[in-house]
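Protein record
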Amino acid sequence: MTDDTPILLHERDARGVHTLTLNQPRTFNVLSEAMLQALSARLDEIAADEGARVLVIAAAGKAFCAGHDLKEMRAHPQLDYYQQLFARCSRVMLQIQRLPIPVIARVHGVATAAGCQMVAQCDLAVAAQEARFGVNGIDVGLFCATPSVPLVRNVPAKVAMEMLLTGEFISAEEARLRGLVNRVVPAEALDAEVERLVGAIVAKPRAAIALGKAVFYQHRETSIEAAYQLAGQTMACNMMHEVAQEGVQAFIDKRAPAWRTEG
């Protein structure tokens, strides 16, 4: 790699499937200031793409993401610097959640600390058998507080706390059993498995998925009564949309729905 090699690669196919690839393999794709800035800018672009259907977050090299850049952090021992850094990272994570399209983490190698946080923040995750996951900031005296936010929303509380307190890594299969990733496959099958998920999603109407993703995260943070109220209102609005009207009619007619291409 040369100095002018992009640290974040961005591709979009004809279906509206975006792929962001962390491209700093020599530093294990750390979430440096520059990487966070690049991610934020690209996520904004994808959010503005009305034809976007799915985002896949991948990485180059041996690791998926080794978390924050500790050398960069140590070089700026100021409270306001750290506050701004973690706030910037949190904004990127929230951008992932607020995208109106599903986000899939393609995890081929180690994902630790803020790297594990990003996997947990994605809507779906597919991992290679060799992948490992950890929130091991505690090993250097830094409790992974921000990674704990999506982690405890993916795995049971005691599982999350054990990972956070010990810094121990879990295997890809353990991550699947605990709810951190959806699927685990051999490395050579990783792209095909991601594509299976992508294909299943792009075959569904975009409008319904956008509504569904938004309400999913909204009702998770509310009381059960408020969640049912919100979910019921969302389903009523969804049912009024032409894609649902067509889908239900197609079911009644025992035919495939003629989804509108922009739907």
Notes: DSSP finds eleven helices and nine strands in the chain. The mean pLDDT is 93. The two ends are 40 Å apart (CA to CA). The beta strands are 8-12, 17-22, 54-59, 103-107, 111-112, 124-128, 132-134, 170-171, 183-185.
